[in-house]
Specification:
It is a single chain. Helix content is 14%, strand content 23%. The chain contains two helices and five strands, in the order H-E-E-E-E-E-H. The chain has helices spanning 10-21, 124-129, and strands spanning 34-41, 49-57, 60-66, 77-80, 85-86. Strands 1, 2, 3, 4 and 5 form a five-stranded mixed beta sheet that branches.
């Protein structure tokens, strides 16, 4: 059996993971704004917007609010999202980045199995994810 884990203090490992997760990437070329209209929007903070508009350009939110209060740029691509929901932050936390061991190979309930203890910081999947 090949042992691949590299054990690091939790703080150092967290710093490595954060560095990979939030690494700067080259900016995308300037693009046309997109307006998502008519959606039910769950903002990060504040009340739910039932009939909302979200305007995005170059990966940044330009405007968000009730449909009547947000006017998209004249050249924006309008996407009708009536009956749809827009909310931030829903991601799948299951990952094989860093070749973690134990989580997938253990029984369904094993609280003593911590993937954090087995991440290989030299695995090339971390560089690919960055």
């Amino acid at each position: 059996m090949k042992f691949r884990a590299l054990f690091l203090p939790a703080g150092l490992l967290a710093a490595v993971i954060l560095r990979v997760a939030f690494a700067q990437t080259p900016a995308a070329p300037s693009g046309k704004a997109r307006a998502f209209t008519g959606a039910k929007i769950f903002p990060v903070s504040g009340p739910v917007i039932e009939d909302g508009t979200l305007v995005v350009q170059d990966g940044r939110i330009l405007a968000i609010g009730p449909h009547a209060a947000v006017t998209p740029p004249a050249d924006a691509e309008i996407m009708d999202c009536k009956g749809k929901v827009i909310m931030p932050g829903l991601i799948c936390t299951h990952s094989h980045i860093g070749e973690p061991s134990g989580g997938d190979m253990s029984a369904p309930i094993q609280p003593e199995t911590r993937v954090l203890d087995s991440i290989d910081i030299r695995d090339n999947s971390l560089a690919r994810a960055r």
